[in-house]
Amino acid sequence: MKIEIRGVEKLSFRERQVVVLKEMGKSNAEVAKILGINASTVATLYNRARSKGYEVVIVLPGDTLGIFGGGKEDEE
């Protein structure tokens, strides 16, 4: 699995850090602890990043989903 952030060039370095951690499911408090900043700063950075219009895309290889070869369905 690969995670791609489209529009990342619009984000500051700190916004990128916050976005990655938040998209991994971390809470504001967890992100704040990791980055050594306040939870309210995390919220501000995340909201600012969201307003800039980034998009998170998850790229999965076809074989992970069982839709491109190698499956028993191909043999029938």
Keywords:
76 residues, alpha+beta, Arc Repressor Mutant, subunit A, two-stranded antiparallel ribbon, 4 helices, 2 strands, elongated
What is the annotated CATH architecture? Answer: Orthogonal Bundle
Number of domains: 1
Give the tally of β-strands.
2
Question: Largest sheet, described in full?
Answer: 2 strands, antiparallel
Q: How much is the average pLDDT?
A: 87
- CATH fold annotation: Arc Repressor Mutant, subunit A
Overall outline = elongated
What would your notes on this structure say?
There is one protein chain. The protein is an alpha+beta fold and about 80 residues long. The chain has 4 helices and 2 strands. It has one domain (about 1-75): Arc Repressor Mutant, subunit A. Helices cover about 45% and strands about 15% of the residues. α2 (about 30-35) crosses α3 (about 40-50). The protein is elongated, with a radius of gyration of 17 Å. The model has no long low-confidence stretch (mean pLDDT about 85).
